[in-house]
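Something for you to look into today, if you have time. Could you write out one complete protein record for me, on any chain you like? The space below this message is yours for that.
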Amino acid sequence: MDLDLRSIQTLIRAFLGPPPPTSDPTREVPPATPVRFPTCAPQTERSCSSRGDGEQSLVALLQTIQRPADIQMSHFEALGVHVISNASHQEILPDASYLPPFEEWKAIGQEDVLGATAASKNPLNNGLFSPGVSTYQERSKELSIENTAAFRTIRRIPPPAGETSVRLGNAYEFFKNLEFFSGFWDDTSLPPSTNESVNENSNSNKGQEVPTHLQTYNRIGTGSQLPHEYRQHLLNAFIKLVAYDFGCNVNFARCEPRLILKPSNASKPPSYFNSSASFIYRTPTDRSAARSGIVEGPLASVSCRTTTVSPQF
C-alpha cells in the first residue's frame, strides 16, 4: 500500500492525539490572585458533651452542610474546635525537647559535623536512630537554594556566565513541584519590581531579552486556576524531606477517606463527606513486611485547601 506524506502525518496525529497546548507569549496574562489566608479563629470553651437535650444533635447539624459555603461558626462550636493563631513550633509539639537546637546546629563547622552527628542521634521506638546534625544541615542547605537557580536546573537551562548549575539533591522533587506553581503564582522570593518586569517581558514580543522557553519564571494563569493536585504534591514533597529520615513516607490514601452520617429517618439517604488528603505512614523495619506493603499508622494527615477566598462568618 502506497502512502503519501500527508497520509502518514494524518495517521501519526490519529495515533498520538492532539498536540499539548502551548502558552502564547503575546496573550495578556490575567492579574495575579491576591494571597488571603483564612482569618477564622473559633474560640470554644466548652466540649461537645455539654450540649443540652433541647439542642440540635451533632449528626443533624453536620447534615446541613452540602457545600463549603454552608459551613458556619455553629459547626465549629459543636465540634469543640479551638484555634490558636500564630502558634510557635514549641507549642505544637507536646514535648519541646524533641526539637533540635537550631542555632547551635547551624553554628557547627564542617570539621565537627561527624562528632556532633553521632552525639545528636536519639533512639526511636522502632529500633532506629533519628537523623542528626549532618542531615539537618544538608536539608537546610538544599531548601535555601534560590528558586531561580533551582528552576534552571529543573528546566535544564544553562546557568549564567561565571556560575555553575546547582545540585538539588533530595529537594529535587520539591523544586520540581514548586516550578509548576510559577505558571500560576508570582514568585514571592523575588522583589515585586522583579515580578512586574518579568510579567512585562512575558507579555511583549518586542525587545524580549530572554526567549520564553529559557525563562525561569513565566506566569500564564492565576492562582485560582492552579489544579488541586499540584498543591497536594508540593506539600507531600516538602514533608517527605523530613519524614523519610525518620523511616516514614507520605502517600495519598489508598481508599478515599469518607465520613458517613446516617440519619434516624430511614427515608433520608446518608450524607457523605469526602476529603482529599495525604497520610504519613511509617515503614516497618522488617523487610518482608515492608515488601508486602504493610505500613504503620497513619501517624498524621495533611491536606491543602482548594479555595483562594477566605470564608466570611
